[in-house]
Design a protein that fits this description.
By secondary structure, the protein is an alpha+beta fold. 35% of the residues lie in helices and 17% in strands. It has helices spanning 15-19, 43-52, 67-79; strands at residues 3-5, 24-27, 31-34, 58-60. The strands form two sheets. A two-stranded antiparallel ribbon has the order 1-4. The chain has a two-stranded antiparallel ribbon with strand order 2-3. A hairpin with a 3-residue loop joins β2 (24-27) and β3. The longest helix is centred in the C-terminal third of the chain and has 13 residues, at 67-79. The relative contact order is 0.23. The structure holds iron/sulfur cluster. Iron/sulfur cluster binds next to α1.
Length: 81
């Protein structure tokens, strides 16, 4: 699963690092480091992090049922018309 965090939006609230510590980590007080590729077994933690981020900075590709995934599906459906 591919992950992108919009670091311009990220405010360093660390919710993601708390919920998926093997994918996201805080480096110092405010800067976030993360793995751009998450394994399937990390998807639950990633899904929680996506949902919990207060500024919706995290985008995860291939997360079924997540907000982003549903938005993508909707866009594809309307493109097909
Ligand atoms: S939860 Fe969102 S704002 Fe907080 S550190 Fe993670 S990406 Fe940044």
């Amino acid at each position: 699963m591919r992950l992108v965090v919009d670091l311009n939006k990220c405010q360093g609230y660390a919710q993601c690092a708390f919920l998926a510590p093997d994918v996201f980590a805080m480096h110092g007080e405010e800067s976030l480091v993360y793995s751009p590729r998450a394994e399937q077994e990390q998807r639950d933690g990633v899904a929680r992090a996506v949902a919990a981020c207060p500024v919706q900075a995290i985008t995860a590709e291939g997360l079924d049922g997540a907000r982003h995934g549903l938005a993508e599906a909707g866009r594809e459906a309307s493109d097909a018309r």
